[in-house]
Fold this protein.
Amino acid sequence: MTDYRDMWQDLGMDLETHDLLCAALPQSFGDIYLTQENRPEGMAFYDFVVSEIHGIRPAELVKLKEDGGKVFGTFCVFVPDEVVVACGGAVTGLCGGSQFWVPEGEKVLPSGMCPLIKASLGAHFGKTCPYFSVSDVYVGETTCDGKKKAYEILGADKQTYLMDMPQMKRPQDYEKWTGGISAFARMVQEVTGVELTAEKLGDAIHLINEKRQALARVHAARKADPLPISGKDVLLMTQIAFFDDPARCAQMANALADELEARIERGEGVFPKGTKRILVTGTPLAIPNWKLHHIIETSGAAVVCEEICTGTRYFEHLVDESATTLEGQFQALSDRYMQNNCACFTPNPGRVEDIVRLAREYRADGVIDCNLKFCTLYDVEKSSVAAALEQEGIPCLALETDYADNDSEQLRTRIGAFIEMLG
Ligand code: BJ8
């Protein structure tokens, strides 16, 4: 790996602690990813990104800043990247997915909180993640209570802009989110010093739509049997999409999709035909949280779809490109983003409908509904998910976990028994 120490130092990072993080990742990535057989050649790009995960993209973002651009760090798929891209900025996803950051997060947050929030704040306050350090502004959103309160703590240390998310889906809520996007656009223009025009926003909407379509092609390839790619590999591609350059993301995903489609034509797969197919739903799986997929795919089944924010919710539904005014474009963005069925909405029948629809589309034999500990929103929805799947005759296993590895064997036992039960 190239030496990025000077850059990390300039970003104000804690190099000693960061070395410990960098030392652990190659081993776990090697064990989980590089042990797979017959992986698509297109995954070499994503392996390379992981090998340079705290170097190559942060260096691009540093360069963007030197050239006058701004970096916006985000924690939720409701934040419209299009607006930032249109103003010459870059968006980088910041959700923490590693146990490494949790103890640092617990210094400023109660321990009885979701690990995603604790890891995110731990990465910021521990100064061990260049994506946090390089961000000019954090963009929070009023989704769950834990995140809402955590942004107050983050905001005391770095400029943090809060988007006021609707909690329902009535016509006035769509209108509210249109207004929220418009206010966000004002802030982005102030921070970047770039005036937003309908032409620039139109181009950015088109670019992000292209990225969504490319990601969708890769995911769609998983409808085939045998599967041309593992669930683990698709999860990795999707996680990397949150911080990569959008044009390159689309290009690499399209190249991977070409390869997968050719594999499907040849009937070539990474698991034997007839391998049990699992749809995963629940809380997001932020990089490098690969635990669940790894256990499933080393227990005789394969993950064929993720109804989560690091899955279908990230790329389903395109923004209508026909609007020619900023007002019309904000409305179109609102219409698209409000189709996301996060458990923060009440009532939220759309999520259950999505799970059933996707289970059919991807021909899932069973669903694993896995939530992070202390996430009340998704925990409460477990019963409605289970009831709907029971009605459809789709077996479902509900699990709860965190980022630590100490429950891996217990999870393996339960997941193994579930897969066996699928026949
Ligand atoms: S749109 S899922 S990215 S809010 S897991 S932090 S909800 S306590 S992440 Fe999310 Fe946006 Fe919704 Fe998606 Fe809170 Fe639950 Fe933790 Fe969560």
User: Anything to note?
Assistant: The CA atoms of residues 343 and 377 lie 6 Å apart. The two ends are 45 Å apart (CA to CA). Residues 5-421 form one domain. The chain has a mean pLDDT of 97.
